[in-house]
Amino acid sequence: MSETILKVQGVSKRFGGLQALSDVGIEIRKGQVYGLIGPNGAGKTTFFNVITGLYIPDAGSFELGGQPYKPSAVHLVAKAGIARTFQNIRLFAEMTALENVMVGRHVRTHSGLIGAVLRTGGFKREEIEITERARQLLEYVGIGKYADYKARTLSYGDQRRLEIARALATDPKLIALDEPAAGMNATEKVVLRELIDRIRRDGRTILLIEHDVKLVMGLCDRVTVLDYGKQIAEGTPADVQKNEKVIEAYLGTGGH
């Protein structure tokens, strides 16, 4: 049996009088692309934000790579080994593509503030290594030629790929993609799918929230479906598509 990367159980979250999540859990194994889908308002983004430390859950247990972790802050979750992208692109617009990826890589540095201030030999060596790794990742996602371009000058699809490169720079156990195909045209989606496939083939584990059901069903090994904050189905894409609750709540509505 393959190694469990992320195991989340019993997650609940309330906002005032709204019960956004009720006893939700998932288990993702190493090398899987795991999909999270559901109609608008189903709780997908809330669950995603809980896992990645943006929201504090009211209840739930969390394990990453077999070790408990507390999703109490985004930077702590990143250090634990979960890197995420955002539905609304969050790049440093005035920094170059290379610099954006280097920012992600600094999560794994060791020199610290004193080393940076004093420009120690260890700090300089680490900066060279960070720069080289950032260039490799830009090549990996297919935008190496834009390394010295400001992030704001890149096309929409290339900005999405830059976000993925920055997430990969943290050497995550799990990379969590929040609607990466949102706003993309058909050609850009093909490129995105090829990139996600490549990341999977290279042994990475991916959690994918996506409105494009066709993309999810074509990419994912397993899928969880939420509706009104509750888990209504979990299984292979083929099993989920045949589930009557899913057909009623999501797939049968013409595509939320």
Automatic annotation (TrEMBL):
Name of a matching Pfam family: BCA_ABC_TP_C
Residue stretches in coiled coil: none
Transcription as UniProt keyword: no
PROSITE patterns with a match to the protein in the record: ABC_TRANSPORTER_1, ABC_TRANSPORTER_2
Entry keyword set: ATP-binding, Cell membrane, Membrane, Nucleotide-binding, Transport
InterPro entries recorded: AAA+_ATPase, ABC_AA/LPS_Transport, ABC_transporter-like_ATP-bd, ABC_transporter-like_CS, BCA_ABC_TP_C, P-loop_NTPase
GO terms for MF: ATP binding
Domain ABC transporter: 6-253
Protein name: ABC transporter ATP-binding protein
Source organism: Rubrivivax gelatinosus
